[in-house]
Amino acid sequence: MLTRVFRLMAVSLLAAALAGPAQGTGLNVFESDLAVLARTRLAEVARSPRVIAAVREQNRQTAQYTQEQITELDEQWIREAESGSHGQLIAGVLDHEVSRYLARLQDDSQGLFTEIILMDAVGLNVAVSRVTTDYWQGDEDKWQKTFLVGPHSLHIGPLEEDLSTRTVQSQVSVPVVDPQTGEPIGALTFGIDVEEL
Predict the structure, then answer these.
(1) pTM of the predicted structure, to 2 decimals
(2) What are 86-93's contacts with CB under 8 Å, separation 24+?
(3) Higher-scoring residue by pLDDT: 8, 153
């Protein structure tokens, strides 16, 4: 336990030393290890038939959403998340079979995965392993630098220290690709505790 604390402190100090002044995040010295993880274990989840089917199904519902509708849903999610009780929108996503699958993946990862977020073609949550702060990820790098970039894209976020869990994490995102067309239909993000790599 003491060794882990010292290692975590070293990683935290490194992240702080490399931190950018505005975001409080730094360069990701674990990028090569995270890229290997993304191209193997994470890509396998993104290719899962149940993940692909869930994204296809939601895309049929959300394809015609206007930005105003997306913003309203995002605001509803934020209100529900801040209230601490799961309202209709959050409960609907958490009750999705794929959310339960992602939660099991997170639980079975022995601390490696801190969160898993599956997004559709407009950047809305399809399924999550735990409640996110917002519903629309379409304005964030996790979606923009995967779904919009193409089927072979990969986005590795900077190191970020989570003070509540005392972990140093990075978000790693890959596109969800339709095997029939070879085109992205959504995106999948994993929060990775780099101490567990």
Answers:
(1) 0.87
(2) 86/131, 89/135, 90/131, 93/125, 93/126, 93/127, 93/128, 93/135
(3) 153
